[in-house]
Amino acid sequence: xxxxxxxxxxxxxxxxDLCIADKGCTVCVDVxxxxxxxxxxxxxxxxxxYMKYDECWYxxxxxxxxxTGAVTVNLPYLLK
Amino acid sequence: xxxxxxxxxxxxxxxxxxxxxxxxxxAALKAKKKNPEANVVLLDxxxxxxxxxxxMGMDGLNNSVIPGYATPEQYTKEITIAxxxxxxQAAVYRYAEECYGIxxxxxxxxxxxxxxxxxxxxxxxxxxxxxxxxxxxxxxxxKKALYRQLRKARINIVNRYMATRLLTGEGRVAGAICVNxxxxxxxxxxxxxxxxxxxxxxxxxxxTSGYLYGTYxxxxxxxxxxxxxxxxxAGLANLECYQINPLIKDYNGPACxxxxxxxxxxTANAAxxxxxxCDYWSGQMMQEFYDELQGGKGPVFLKLDHLAEETVAExxxxxHIVERPTRGHFHAGRGTDYRKTMxxxxxxxxxxCSGHSASGVFVDENARTTIAGLYAxxxxxxxxxxxxxxxxxxxAFAGExxxxxxxxxxxxxxxxxxxxxxxxxxxAPTKRDDGIPPNQIEYKTRRLVNDxxxxxxxxxxxxxxxxxxxxxxxxxxxGMYVRDAHELMRALEASTILDCADMAAAAxxxxxxxxxxxxxxxxxxxxDDENWFxxxxxxxxxxxxxxxxxxxxxxxxxxIADEEKDAYYNQRVDPSVAAE
Lengths: 80, 580
Prior knowledge:
Largest interface: A-B, 28 and 40 residues
CATH superfamily of the domain at 428-552 in chain B: Fumarate reductase/succinate dehydrogenase flavoprotein-like, C-terminal domain
Keywords (chain B): Flavoprotein, Oxidoreductase
Distance between the termini of chain A: 33 Å
Protein name (chain B): Succinate dehydrogenase/fumarate reductase, flavoprotein subunit
Number of helices of chain B: 16
Domain FAD-dependent oxidoreductase 2 FAD-binding (chain B): 14-382
Strand content of chain A: 15-25%
Helix content of chain B: 25-40%
GO molecular function (chain B): electron transfer activity; flavin adenine dinucleotide binding; succinate dehydrogenase activity
CATH topology of the domain at 428-552 in chain B: Methane Monooxygenase Hydroxylase, Chain G, domain 1
Helix content of chain A: 10-25%
Oligomer: heterodimer
Distance between the termini of chain B: 62 Å
Radius of gyration of chain B: 23 Å
Number of strands of chain A: 4
Shape of chain A: globular
GO biological process, one term (chain B): anaerobic respiration
Strand order of the largest sheet of chain A: 1-4
Number of strands of chain B: 17
Number of helices of chain A: 2
Strand content of chain B: 15-25%
């Protein structure tokens, strides 16, 4: 019983140029009540935050607490 | 991160507080203040900095009882009437007497409350009878202010651990079994007292958007408090009194008539006519709302387009920074301008939450549950219409009582086989090679909740629900599959959601009358005070299934005159007035 890979548009986006995960920042990952954000290593070897799990309450601590304004919370498409 | 690791650690503390949202932090602070020697642990599935229903703050107190504006007698009477008389008044009355002290304490934490030009609290009238709503101008800072106090008091904070079962022994609470949400490692916490502040069962019904996390409640509030209390053998009260709220359609956040109402906004039908006299959330109000939605004059809207520019700007300023700040994004995305268009509303999915209704773990005026040493406060405890200030105040009661309880108390012995059995239960989905992912188990459960449990309640439909839930449970226990620790957290939530769904069906079938307006509208039965003027208490029966009993409503502290009893049933606006 294999699992499928269904695409979904995630509500939280991170501006790679502003994100300072490379400097060790994990504020958005730390504060998310649903624990849906993680840090990824990008193609050029730098780190950036991203939304790994599409389980968003669009509550906004990640956006509000990001020290560089890199995180934007959009509404999930299903309820937009 | 998220890789499943094998591990089991045990820690000891005097008082374990589970849930770091609203009630939990206050309970921890008060316990520590009363007994500075006590080792108090505050545990949360998320991060206490931003966890719980008020992760982004709150726009005001909905139920403040402030001398000069309201009296404890009046408030107790109002809540009793709003709750159709099924109310042990002692807990409500004690809240009403002591919440003013909590307001002053919150004020000392740096949380401000609105005052008028004379320096008096600027309390607004929203309820049917009395005046209790107090705006909070810097309500976005609540969690930060609380967190500062927790650090100052040196409360031990444990983040990202999810409690899955309570431990009991010697007829009292012994601690809790917890799982790390990012590694699946186990933590057994031995405690002399346990205070639960785990919030509502907010992921029970499925929102109309179909998005699993598009709930009214913080979606991390998935009902663990209810499920753990059930499995530990505690009594749960009036679970058939669902929470259903009038919300902004699709966005599923509060329309905030409590904010807009005092400034002239109101709930209207499609013709822009007022149809309810009072925007305060109650079962009776929700029935009128539902009738209007279903009738030819629906849907229902929040109407602000008749207000002056400065007023609308003020409403926007409050609503777009606190509680659910993405509301501004939502309206912008749809091109909704409060000045020009009414805001479409709908009813929420069902849930358990005493914050706005009355369903919860049974507690007395000291926040004690039916298990010695186990306390509950906030949205998951059964004190009706408790809101944020009730969570703080009853959290304080729990903390203070627990601080006394643990004196001269040692840890209760418990059966260690329980820990091993729980490890096997929790980890089962990690031991399979494939199977059903937790999100599908959850979606199916919640879709069935909508199909069969949502009011108006019909006996045959609820019985079908029980049959379907049993099938889902079989699938869950035999075939659920997770790939990492994060998915395991979702799997555990799916199991608590299913427990809550079973309890909702069982409790609703037991009370063979209609009560609380839409919340328990059983279409085959009328209200029946002779047989059902009582609490219903649900416990775990010997067969593991919900068992039921009636419990008498305690004699009133504040008398209610006969002519006042049905005040909340006279909500519909007289048509001759509405036309004006």
